[in-house]
């Protein structure tokens, strides 16, 4: 970057692009969005008009010397080629999750970024939000004593979601990479890297009838080839163990039951797909049934703050320090997911070869 302002080009004009563009052209400091591109140019034009930026081709964006960082908001099966092209063009890159489809692709891109002295970062940036930062501080302050374990149980309605959101039918958009990754990301950011996993993964309904009125294929049979049920045992490098379960074949939508257990209490967390869900604590009440009490929340990034990740990475570039959103954690999470898939195939637990640092807390803003 040649100034204190990081100039960003956005690739992708789908549903998630709106909140990124709103925040990066509005409330996030130290960044400027110059342009947006998309596979369908008319979509880029629509977003460009809405947010006061330019609509360009991806080739034009990568050739633009003013663009410091490329933000990739496309489906995961396009990530490898787009990130590689952007790094080759000398751009820093921040991408939506999951970083790539395979660990081999992620490792290659990380090597390329390192060789060229470029930053590579990856979502979810909800770990920088009020909810998980409040939880992080509570753990550092010892409010539940010595941590003894964790559990998360997630329920979703795939009948509705795959009908309403067609991208969930694409490669890499199953339970593991599209949603469980939020919980893995939160878990690692709070308690540290994963050492070993054992998992069972199921795809019970490879097709279904779309039940969502008003969608293009309402009432028709649609392909839903991605995994929708995951049950996993997880051991962290610290020795802590716990379970993660995602059940997408039910009527309940995005119901989160995410707990961290301690000798002196239990932290009750919200959904790590959100930035500002309340954090509550259960403490020993003797013979009485304990009642969850809310913890005081940091006010930073409590709203939908998607875009704080690339803004934080821009600040790290300016300051010459590692980014809290560095791709090492994203690559580790992908290694964990692939270890779960291997465990399901082989019927045995699988060790995770990689590791990562726990990102520093972000309690004072950018």
Tell me what the structure shows:
- Strand 5, helix 5 (103-115) and strand 6 form a beta-alpha-beta unit.
- The model has no long low-confidence stretch (mean pLDDT 95).
- This protein has 366 residues and is of the alpha/beta class.
- Strands 16-15-14-13-7-12-11-8-17 form a 9-stranded mixed sheet, covered by helices on one side. A 6-stranded parallel sheet has the order 3-2-1-4-5-6, sandwiched between helices. A two-stranded antiparallel ribbon has the order 9-10.
- The chain is globular.
- 31% of the residues lie in helices and 23% in strands.
- The chain has 2 domains: 6-125 and 305-325, Rossmann fold; 127-301 and 334-351, 2-Layer Sandwich (Dihydrodipicolinate Reductase, domain 2), CATH 3.30.360.
Regarding quaternary structure, how should these chains be classified? single chain
Poorly predicted ranges: none
Helicity range of the residues? 25-40%
* Proportion of residues in extended strands: 15-25%
Total E-strand runs: 17
Largest sheet: 9 strands, mixed
CATH architecture of the largest domain: 2-Layer Sandwich
Shape: globular
Name of the CATH superfamily of the largest domain: Dihydrodipicolinate Reductase, domain 2
Please state the average pLDDT score.
95
CATH class label of the largest domain: Alpha Beta
Cα-based radius of gyration, to the nearest Å = 20 Å
Look at the helices and sheets and give the structural class: alpha/beta
Work out the helix count. 10
The figure for the number of domains is 2
Gap between N and C termini: 17 Å
Element-level helix/strand string: EHEHEHEHEHEHEHHEEEEEEEEEHHE
Strand order of the largest sheet: 16-15-14-13-7-12-11-8-17
The CATH topology of the largest domain turns out to be Dihydrodipicolinate Reductase, domain 2
